[in-house]
Amino acid sequence: MPVDPCPSSHRVTIADTGEAYACNSAETVLVGLARLGKRGIPVGCRGGGCGVCKVEVVSGQYRKRVMSRNHVNADDEACHRVLACCIYPISDVVVRAIGPMQKSLNRGSAAAASAATTPEAAKA
């Protein structure tokens, strides 16, 4: 895949949690997501072969590289269900996690929400 000679930064929002991060057009959505430093984010092979980073692009535009048909079939691709390790944002995008990624992000959100409702958090 050709390298973007003039990478630009775009906002990637995770629909599941409302979190957002900057991701430039020369890096994959997964690389940007990993920068958030959340525990348990499945990064797998980072090359499109394992399928653990599957997301649905709810809005926005991206360019993509080849993904394994074992994990992203033609119907998936038509519905913008792709692998985060294989897409590069070319505008602001909103993604929704699917499969292992969804479990990981929801677990992190549930832990954060639980921590915010503890008596100690209420005193803060």
TrEMBL record:
CDD domains: fer2 (cd00207). Residues 10-101 form the 2Fe-2S ferredoxin-type domain. It comes from the Bacteria. GO terms for molecular function: 2 iron, 2 sulfur cluster binding. Transmembrane segments: none annotated. This is 2Fe-2S ferredoxin-type domain-containing protein. It comes from Methylibium petroleiphilum (strain ATCC BAA-1232 / LMG 22953 / PM1).
